[in-house]
Write a structure and sequence with these properties.
The protein has 2 domains: 167 residues, VC0802-like (2-Layer Sandwich); 210 residues, HUPs (Rossmann fold). 37% of the residues lie in helices and 19% in strands. It starts with 15 loop residues before the first strand and ends with a strand. It has 406 residues and is of the alpha/beta class. Helix 3 packs across helix 4, helix 7 runs antiparallel to helix 8 and helix 8 packs across helix 9.
Length: 406
């Protein structure tokens, strides 16, 4: 039975946030550029919370702020490149000061648990300062011996403890923490160039955009609007989705392309079964043109193999043949349930489920082609003015620049 000490303790907020990264640490001589990008993204992500100071020392980033540190830690869980974050308390790098701070931290953390909760406990230290007089295991024992009699009856468990008191000993200062909040991992947004994501109001394309951000890609967006067959609410839905995705990158740009003339032309002059494939071929062309303008080096789609008729290998081949840039498909082998789970995690699922149609539902064929052929697509397109349709659509593009509101 765990019992908290009756000794009064003063509530004290965490002093800073320790940040750990995983894959980024493997970048060798390029590592400083990745770290610098991560620092920029941290500052951008937290600018609406409070002003921060970021230190980069010995493989750890430390984020300091005068207030709202716990809120900062939660916000940093959205920043790609971060593996874990820990709200932490600082102290002098002496065994006495560390033990004193460890007691304060444990009392603070135990406020979140009921008194009768039976908790197991351990201390885990690391020493960036090798001149510190105690080995890590010796410091573990010292701190446990000092604080446990003042906290109550804990079970010691070195393998699967409920509470792990972390200690990082550094020359300039030591840090004590308990929580390790998970981040996205991956690489900092912007370190692997720019991509243009074809986004609809569905579940898959926002997830594909997020996964691309997590791999270091700064993502711009393009969507297609067929007024009056699709209303303004459909456009608003897409902009709201991008606004939610802007939690995960500093800024987001959206291009809205008028698509009505292209769709009515395809309806009137092309084989009905090929309508959706031909729509998507035009989308690839238009996205490629705008990607060049926006200095994007690839297109990003939410395609998943076999999920709908247009996503068979043959139809994907027909569609990609119209692209002028590489096409990245982060969800190509995902089950729908996998995409739904991730959409819920990143906060786009509820928006995607709003009952607003996208332009691919306009003039849908009764029996869409399953195994399309490129030569049939090209023959159909020879019947209308592809370049003229493209030029008029690009003249009507609307652009929106969206920053995170968090």
């Amino acid at each position: 039975m765990t019992t908290q000490s009756s000794t009064p303790s003063t509530t004290q907020a965490p002093e800073m946030v320790l940040i750990r990264y995983g894959e980024l640490a493997l970048k060798g001589k390029n590592r400083p550029s990745f770290e610098n990008a991560l620092v920029r993204n941290i500052r951008s992500a937290t600018k609406n919370i409070t002003k921060v100071h970021v230190e980069n020392k010995r493989g750890r980033l430390a984020v300091f702020a005068e207030e709202r540190v716990a809120e900062l830690a939660v916000r940093l869980q959205d920043v790609a490149g971060i593996k874990t974050v820990s709200p932490a308390w600082g102290c002098e790098s002496t065994k006495e000061a560390i033990a004193e701070k460890a007691l304060l931290v444990m009392r603070e953390v135990l406020r979140e648990y009921p008194v009768e909760h039976n908790l197991s406990f351990r201390v885990r230290s690391s020493r960036a300062d090798k001149s510190f007089p105690l080995l890590s295991t010796e410091l573990d024992r010292h701190v446990a011996d000092q604080i446990l009699p003042q906290l109550g009856d804990f079970r010691i468990d070195l393998k699967n403890a409920d509470l792990v008191l972390g200690i990082e000993v550094r020359p300039e200062r030591s840090y004590v923490f308990v929580k390790r909040l998970p981040g996205p991992g991956g690489l900092p947004v912007g370190t692997l160039g720019r991509g243009m994501c074809l986004i609809s109001g569905g579940i898959d394309s926002p997830v594909a955009a997020y996964l691309s951000m997590k791999r270091g890609c700064q993502v711009s967006f393009i969507t297609f609007h067929s007024y009056p067959y699709i209303g303004e609410a459909s456009k608003k839905k897409v902009l709201d989705l991008v606004r939610q995705l802007s939690r995960y990158q500093p800024t987001s740009r959206v291009f809205v392309v008028p698509f009505t003339e292209i769709q009515t032309t395809i309806r009137d002059k092309a084989p009905e079964a090929y309508r959706t494939v031909l729509y998507r071929r035009f989308m690839q062309r238009l996205a490629s043109r705008l990607a060049y303008r926006d200095k994007c080096k690839a297109l990003i789609t939410g395609e998943s193999l076999g999920q709908v008729a247009s996503q068979t290998i043959e139809n994907i081949t027909c569609i990609e043949a119209a692209a002028e840039l590489p096409v990245i498909r982060p969800l190509i082998t995902y089950d729908k349930e996998d995409a739904i789970e991730l959409a819920e995690k990143i906060g786009t699922l509820q928006l995607s489920n709003l009952p607003e149609p996208d332009c691919c539902t306009v003039f849908m064929p009764n029996r869409p082609i399953i195994h399309g052929r490129v030569e049939v697509c090209e023959a159909a397109e020879a019947e209308f003015d592809v370049q003229g349709l493209m030029d008029r659509a690009l003249e009507g593009v609307e652009r929106y620049d969206i920053e995170s509101e968090v």
